[in-house]
Amino acid sequence: MPRHFLRDDDLAPDELLAVLDLADEMKADRHRYRPLAGPQAVALIFDKPTLRTQLSFSVGISELGGQPVVVDGRLAGIGQRESIADVTRVVSRQVAAIVWRTFGQDSIEEMAALSPVPVINALTDQFHPCQILADLQTVREHKGHLAGLSFAYVGDAANNMAHSYLLGAAAAGLDVRLAGPPEYQPDPRIVADAERIAAGTGASITVTDVVEKALDGADVVVTDTWVSMGQEAEKDAREAPFLPYAVTADSLEHAASDAIVLHCLPAYRGKEISAEVLDGPRSVVWDEAENRLHAQKALLAFLLERSV
Ligand code: NVA
After folding, report:
1. Residues designated catalytic
2. Per-residue exposure over 97-118, b if at least 16 CB sit within 10 Å of its own CB, e if not
3. Model pTM greater than 0.90?
4. Ligand 1 atom closest to Cα of 53?
5. Max CA-CA distance within the chain?
6. At what angle do helices 285-306 and 129-143 cross, to 10 degrees?
7. Helices (H), 47-83
8. Per residue in 198-230, pLDDT tens?
9. Contacts of 129 (CB under 8 A, 6+ apart)
10. pLDDT for residue 156
11. Span from the CA of 6 to the centroid of ligand 1 (angstroms)
């Protein structure tokens, strides 16, 4: 059976830590592991824009001894020109794994249900689990540990990053706080899933619309764009409600004095984060972007090894 990674809780808490440990090892010695030697191919399918994901998976698959094959989802027309089922049958005959960035979580679940090879979620409207692996690796590098740290995400608490932070940070035992406008709060089903995970890891979950409550003494401060891919038509409406949730030098006064700041990028300076913070000494966003490479290599190696 293939092991898939469609949402953050597809890795159990101990598995998550094993992947992060492997990511650290791979970062220290980039060419040591070659589970894709052959080379075996991995398909990278993009129905939405990409920079970091295409780059880091392509470089990572090559470093693992494999061959990345980028598929333009707009050309393939998955679900329109050809059904998800037929695409899955064709692609999975030729590759060792499929990495897909698309819109609905239901689409990637449909692919995974049919695929004999691992399917990895490279971002859907609901989750962005690969990013959370890189973020946790980055936090651990800078703070030395994960469990017990307070982790504040402020901004669009209803988006894919918020949902993935709920699940992934709960698995890592963090004190997870999400603050967003009342009309942009996370899916309650995912909050409930995060609370279940937290009960086993010692994590805690707070969801609020009060930005100071999330930021109070936080060790890690995180934000994301207010306009996710696919929401471009709502751009104007998605500004005013979020203004109080911008990460600025002033709002960071509420966080711990040694707080670090993460952002998955692309960032919009002057919107969800000020240039002063993004480009300032607390920002670890370039480490975070690099760690996509190491974390995703570790994930691929882990899923391939566990798929029988
Ligand atoms: N929430 C953002 C994340 C980008 C990596 C989006 O979906 O566009």
Report:
1. 101, 128, 131, 224, 264, 292
2. bbbbbbbebebbbbbbeebebb
3. yes
4. 5
5. 54
6. 120
7. 52-63, 73-76
8. 999 999 999 999 999 999 999 999 999 999 999
9. 5, 6, 7, 8, 10, 121, 164, 167, 168
10. 98
11. 16
